[in-house]
Design goal:
48% of the residues are buried. Helix 1 crosses helix 3 and helix 5 runs parallel beside helix 6. This protein starts with a strand and ends with a strand. It is of the alpha/beta class and 362 residues long. Strands 5-6-7-8-9-10-11-12 form an eight-stranded parallel sheet. The longest helix has 19 residues. The protein contains twelve helices and 16 strands. Strand 11, helix 12 and strand 12 form a beta-alpha-beta unit. The protein is globular and about 60 Å long.
Length: 362
């Protein structure tokens, strides 16, 4: 694939309403987009959201991506390990910029093959229920949002916790008191707990039937997780503790602090790096969860297509687009009653900029 044109833009994706996680409130998110056009006029889309959503981080990511993308013009980009290793070596300071280019290359590659990205990678699953997230809120607001999401058809709720363990326990008991049929509840502490707080939280909620506990403690406390019996660690998810492939190598060693890996394209550097982590996890019998930040449908779609191509995918948490008030792209996937799947060819939009991820420029 010889690249003839590139374009990089940053857009403000105003959130529908402020969103809180442990220790921080978000009200606006910026995403950076890249398009790669080959010599045949095919266009590949990529995008990224920075792990740190500060103005400085977004500006730095844009500058890195914009500068490096110029080196792609007239370059033959074969989507193989050599190409992706070269890009990663050039973009060591920004896995997010790396992810955007990686996604665009994969999208362009699949389009040239006239396949969906999932088919090009090798489809293993057709669909998954995604969780829908409730940020850190009062008990009343948590219950209100949970009831709304259930009414909207979602069957998995992810509750952000980690600010106050006593309030978190109260919120869990109130949610399970709703007794919604066929509803699963998972929680994400965003590193907000100490070991003592996690013990207290688990002791007072284990009988409720929580599906997953995501990143309960700080990254430097991975060894503290080994205090807990294996049946607890099996439902604990490595998020911030799992950034890149080297982290995955450490986390597969016995005894394991986590039973599930949460892969985010923005953390690891894109589809290629994600598939490498996924393969290692599969070799070691570790289940996968696929997550995101508040992201455009471009990168959400890439994550979904990649997740569907991995045999050990068990959970997806790809609700980041639902928070956005605007996007540069239409399409990408369909989500019906909380079930996410690839758009069938018969449902595709008609556009010269149609991509294999079924993305259409607005």
């Amino acid at each position: 694939m010889i690249i003839k044109n590139v374009n990089v833009e940053t857009h403000d994706m105003q959130l529908k309403e402020p969103y809180a996680i442990a220790g921080h409130v978000h009200d606006s998110i910026k995403n950076t987009f890249i398009t790669l056009e080959d010599s045949d006029g095919n266009v590949g889309f990529g995008s990224c959201a920075t792990k740190n959503d500060s103005e400085e981080s977004v500006k730095e990511c844009f500058e890195i991506l914009n500068s490096f993308s110029l080196s792609l013009i007239e370059k033959e980009l074969t989507p193989n390990e050599e190409t992706f290793n070269w890009i990663a070596s050039e973009l060591t300071s920004s896995t997010e910029a790396n992810a955007a280019i990686d996604i665009a290359i994969h999208d362009l590659w699949a389009k040239r093959r006239k396949e969906s990205l999932t088919d090009a990678l090798g489809m293993k699953h057709e669909s998954f229920d995604t969780s829908i997230t409730v940020g850190v809120s009062s008990l009343e607001r948590t219950v209100e949002l949970a009831e709304k999401h259930i009414e909207d058809g979602f069957s998995i709720l992810k509750i952000k916790i980690g600010d106050c363990v006593d309030e978190d326990i109260e919120r869990m008991k109130a949610l399970f008191a709703l007794k919604p049929e066929k509803i699963k509840i998972r929680v994400d502490a965003n590193r907000g707990y100490s070991k003592e707080e996690l013990i207290k939280f688990y002791d007072q909620t284990f009988d409720l039937g929580l599906e997953l506990i995501e990143q309960p403690m700080e990254v430097d406390q991975n060894n503290e997780m080994l205090y807990f019996p294996e049946e607890i660690r099996k439902i604990c998810v490595a998020d911030e503790s799992l950034q890149i492939f080297d982290d995955a190598i450490r986390l597969v060693q016995e005894p394991r602090p986590f039973g599930v890996f949460n892969i985010k394209l923005m953390k690891c550097g894109g589809v290629s790096a994600a598939k490498k982590i996924a393969a290692l996890a599969h070799e070691n019998g570790i289940k996968l969860m696929w997550g995101c930040f508040d992201e455009s449908k471009v990168s959400i779609s890439a994550a979904l297509h990649t997740a569907l191509s991995c045999e050990n995918t068990q959970y997806i948490d790809l609700d980041g687009f639902f928070d956005l008030g605007w996007d540069l792209i239409d399409g990408g996937y369909k989500c019906e009653n909380g079930i996410m799947s690839v758009i069938d060819r018969s449902e595709e939009h008609t556009s010269e900029l149609q991509s294999p991820c079924n993305l259409v420029c607005r």
